[in-house]
Amino acid sequence: MANRAKEYLKNWISYRTKRYLTFLLITIISLGVPFITIDGNHIFLLSFDHMQMHLLGVSFDMQELYLMPFILILMFLGIFFLTTVGGRIWCGWGCPKTIFRVIYRDFIETKLLGLRKNINNKQIEPDMSKPINKLKKTVAVLIWAVLALIASSNFLWYFVPPEDFFSYIQNIEEHTTMLIFGAVLFGFLMYDTIMLKEDFCVYVCPYSRVQSVMYDDDTVMAVYDPHRGGTIYNDEKEKLHKKPPKGEGECTGCESCVRVCPTHIDIRKGLQLECINCLECVDACTKVMGSLEKESLVQWSSDYEINTKNKTRYFRFRTLGYIAVLTLTLIGLIAMSTTKEYMLLNINKTTELYSIKKDNIVQNSYVFLFQNTDNKAHNYYFDIEDNDDITILRPKNPFKLSAGGKAKKIVILQTKKELVKDDRKDTPITISIKAYAVDEAKRIVVNRETVFVYPRYDLIEAKNKK
Hints:
With about 475 residues, this protein is α+β, with helices and mostly antiparallel strands. The chain folds into two domains: about 1-35 and about 85-310, no CATH class; about 345-465, Sandwich (Immunoglobulin-like). It has helices at about 1-10, 15-30, 70-85, 90-95, 95-110, 130-155, 160-170, 175-195, 200-205, 205-210, 225-230, 255-260, 280-290, 305-310, 315-335, 455-465, and strands at about 35-40, 40, 45, 50-55, 60, 220-225, 300, 345-350, 355, 360-370, 380-385, 390-395, 400, 405-415, 425-435, 445-455.
C-alpha cells in the first residue's frame, strides 16, 4: 500500500487543479456562446425583445416554443442524473456561484492581494482591523465589481444578443427594463459573492434540500473511510475526539480536511447536505497521508465501495431510468426541432359570415396573419387546394415579408358556382389553404384548414330578385 500511495502521489494532479481547468472551460464557453451565430442565428438565445428563441443556429418564433418543455426537462433531469451519479458535483464543479466565490476568495483575495494568507485555510477570515487589510478589501471589491459587471452582462446576452446589447447601452434611457434587470443582477452578484458567501449554498439554495432524496449507496462523493481512519463522530454526530485513540485508526487529527472546506464542515462526520463535492478535502488528505506513504482517508468514492471494497455500481436501475428518459427527451427535442415551419399562418374569419353579390356570387372575408420566421426575405402567396369552385378575389398578387416580418392581409374568397342548394340553413364547407414562399415553395410551405360559409339558397334567390 505504501508503494502504491507513493506512486499515486508522484503522478497525482489535484482535484483543485482539475476544477480550475473546468471553471476556465465553462467561463470560455459561457462568454463565447452568445457571439457564435449560424446563418445569423445564435447557438442559444431567448429573446423577449424579438419574441424568438434560437437553438443551435435555428430561429423559432414564440408561437413555436413547444421546444421549451423538452429543454427544461433535459436541464432538470440532467442535473438530477448527475446528482444520483456524482452527488452535488454540479455545485462544486459547474455552478456559477461556486466559480464566482473561487475567483473572489482564492484568486483575488488570496493569490492576488494576499488578504487571506493561506488558500488551504478557509476558516480564518481576514483581520479587518488593520488599515492595510481594509485597503486590500476595497481593491478586492472593486476588482470583483468589474468582473460582476461582465458576468451580469454575459447573462443578459442570452436574452439580449450582444449586437443589440451594445447598441442599447448607447441609448440606455430607451431600454430601462434591461438596465434595471442588469442592475439587480449585478447587485445580487456583489452581495452574494462578498457578503452571503457559501451561506447561499447551505441555507438558501433549494438544490441542497432535494439532493438527499436522489442519493443512494452508489452515489459518488467525498467520503471519509472510517474503517481505516477510525471513528471521530458517534451516530448522533457528536465529536468523540480530535483523532482516534492509538491503534484504532490512521487519522492523524491534523484537520486539514476541515480547514480547507469552503462550507465549513467536517467530512469525517459523514454525509452532510452542506458538502458541495468540491473535493478540497480529498486533496488535503491526499497530501498529508501521501507524505506518510499511505492512501488518502477521504476519497471520491461511494459508501458502497468504501464499505464493501467492491466497485461502485454506476449502471443501476435508477441511473438507467434517468438515461432512458433523457434519451427519449433528447430524441423528442431533435424530432420537434426538425419540424420547424419557416412561415407561420393564422386564419380568422371576419364577423361577417358571408356577403351575397349579384349573379349568385358569394364572398367570404378572412384575416390572414402571416409571419416570416426564416432569416431572409421572401415573397408569399397562397392557393386553395381542394376546391376549384372557390377562387381568390383578394389579394391578387404575392407580397414580400422581410426576415422575421409580419403581415395582416384581408383575404376575400368567392364562388360563382351553386355549391349547396339548402333553404333551411347556411352550409360550412371545409377548404384547405396552401401558403408558401414563391421563391422557395418546396421548403417554405404550410397547410391550414378553414371554412367557407355558403348561405341559405333562399337568401341568394332573394338577392337576385332585387
